[in-house]
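Final report, section 2: Outcomes. Of the targets proposed, Metal ABC transporter substrate-binding protein is the one most frequently requested by collaborating groups, and we therefore present its record in full.
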Amino acid sequence: MKRNGVIIALALSVMAQNAMAKTLNVVASFSILGDIVEQVGGDHVNVNTLVGPDGDPHTFEPSPKDSAMLSKADVVVVNGLGLEGWLDRMVKASGFHGTLVVASDGIKTHTLEEDGKTVTDPHAWNNMANGARYAQNIQAALEKADPEDAADLKTSGSRYIAQLQQLDGWAKTQFSAIPQAKRKVLTSHDAFGYFSRAYGVTFLAPQGLSSESEPSAAQIAQMIKQIKADGVKVWFMENQLDPRLVRQIASATGAQPGGELYPEALSAPGGVADTYEKAMRHNIETIANSMK
Ligand SMILES: [Zn+2]
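The predicted structure is given below as tokens.
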């Protein structure tokens, strides 16, 4: 009788665990997405990130360890829009059979002309309104993969989305208080196209949409001319890139250093930009302060 009691208790506890919802194994392609998944998913997700803090998502080279991590994931979250050129091969090679979520789904994109080709700008998260859309897409995907926790995910997702929308409004007021002629800065690569359109700031950058591209001597000379003509006074480092090229160009124009921006990689945990929200707030404040 006692023995039966133990068995029944065991069976009940197994049933309870099954009904209680699982912790989803999620792999995010880069650190900003990893943080959005954590904010929305809370205790219901275990997040691993392929391109970590201070890492360049354009030029990433996956290791066999990354591939093994992908093969065990329930959900993989990527930006899409051509950011992760290394991903398709990796997904195929890893034998991943879970759900692939494209966080940028439904975003209004824009294109740029680069070396005679029309290229979609992948850096959509640098507009906070788009970031809120990313969070919505991620929330919907997590709810689908873990329906038992849908109510919890809805609560944490909505709270987080509201915070991003509030920050978006705050960013607009920060920049609208600054005269348009002063809202011009120099950075390393074209990561701020969506930021530029959302908040009315002009960015010049010697490297194109992907940090892989290298400008010619003639393009650099042209850029120096343009910086002087446009009266660009400040330049910024990007945490995930070597600043030598932009520093060299800046020094030829007299532009002053404005600090470091986090356009596509978080800082290490404990740093000034270790969440998406903190990175955006830091970028907005640093850029706005440089114009005052
Ligand atoms: Zn980039």
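Residues 58, 123, 189, 191, 211, 264 surround zinc ion (CB under 6 Å).
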